[in-house]
């Protein structure tokens, strides 16, 4: 309550008095203007639950076939389909009985999936898993002609990498690059401190980024690679998740660190041949010096960003650079998280600093990019989330930021148009009707209540609110749709909408002659308002859209 009072007495109310009434704007969202790069501030990126009830999801990929399906990879060996935010029944792929077996649990299992860029015509897809002996397998599968499922019987192994000694550091990312080749990200073979010294050995396939050209018949050829054979980059420890920026072709590789540093590497387009340092370097620091080149300039490429294990971090989960269109502020932001702490960060596509947004309770196993560029996140606990940024471009500095976000996510507002919310504009009575009709999910009205709102885009909502008994209009047969809502009128609207109980307590002195004094007291008693100052409610002041968001959040959450 104290916080709320100070907020109302602060910028919000003052600016509403300065700004004054503005032309009523429609609440329907408009298509946001295209942007090359957006901007986000700390705390502005969040997650929204899409699906629960999954089984240990560790990845989410699209098929690039125009179907807008998201394929959720489950560690136990199955792939589910999410379409229109709903889980399609049955498995798309089930490799639990794959030839050679499947080892699951801890860091093993079905770890990665990639659809061929021409999946729509050739129905080819590739999976990365640990077989019955613990070895890494990259295998080809073929879906049915409709592309609705793929049988385990179509299994055709491309590459098997010996990995029986240790259960950890299997890597697991598969990606088709902008060059059409298949990129494979392998771990160092496991244990502590790369005991096999695989990361720095260009002749070993462990601890690498590999690049091959599948022939689509169960075999592959190797294009010319910087380290010979299939080796594109060396010096990886456990590059669990990596992605290409679809706008710039930059390759982002998040490499899981040993005990101290988690790192994020960014590789310029089409420029392999990097030595990412492990196990000489962990993050931007020396790890092991024996057998390492420690005299400058050393041959290792340090990450562009790193973070420590402070506060419960333990394992970086790389994500994607947002290139969708629905969330303009997120464009050009690389999204990542940590498996243990559940923290969610962004790094701007050309930047190198981590911006913390949320400390979630999710066990973040992966991010996924849908065909439309929206970014999803998998939680090992069985949930799929969508990563969401600030919906409006003009609310970052609003004192009501969280309230506006809340009413947006409840579907109560679509903003004032043009990707904006107009937090300092006054609320009109017609807008108020839409806010309340949506907050209460009121049914359509069976008749027309007022004559002066017939041209209002909010007429249907005005009738809904009238039918629910929340308004009797401003006069006989009139609603005054374009008039601004005063704070005393708003009290009346909210008390009826929320059916708040009355009170005999007199909270404020400046409303004693208001016809809405009883409702103002009821609103204060419920904790929805603390007034505009000590013992004052400012009953005749206009309500801004930002303040309205706060009132609705308080009242309906
Ligand atoms: Ca070593
Ligand atoms: Ca490194
Ligand atoms: Ca009417
Ligand atoms: Ca009073």
Q: What would CATH call the homologous superfamily of the largest domain?
A: TolB, C-terminal domain
Q: Mind telling me the CATH class of the largest domain?
A: Mainly Beta
List the domain count as a whole number: 2
The separation of the N and C termini measures: 15 Å
Rg from C-alpha positions? 28 Å
**What is the mean pLDDT?**
92
Architecture (CATH level 2) name of the largest domain: 6 Propeller
Q: In terms of structural class, how would the helical and strand content be classed?
A: alpha+beta
Ligand names:
calcium ion
Strand content: 15-25%
Q: What is CATH's topology name of the largest domain?
A: Neuraminidase
Assembly category = single chain
Q: What would the keywords be for this entry?
A:
alpha+beta, Neuraminidase, 5-stranded antiparallel β-sheet, 8 helices, binds calcium ion
List the helices and strands and how they pair.
Elements: H1 2-19, E1 46-51, E2 57-62, E3 70-74, E4 78-83, E5 86-87, E6 93-94, E7 110-115, H2 119-122, E8 124-130, E9 136-142, E10 156-161, E11 173-176, E12 182-185, E13 208-214, E14 220-221, E15 231-234, E16 241-244, E17 251-255, E18 261-267, E19 281-282, E20 285-286, E21 305-308, E22 316-317, E23 333-338, E24 343-348, E25 355-359, E26 364-369, E27 375-379, E28 383-388, H3 401-409, H4 429-440, H5 459-467, H6 487-498, H7 517-525, H8 545-556
Antiparallel strand pairs: 1-28, 2-3, 3-4, 4-5, 4-6, 7-8, 8-9, 9-10, 11-12, 12-13, 13-14, 13-15, 16-17, 17-18, 18-21, 19-20, 22-23, 23-24, 24-25, 26-27, 27-28
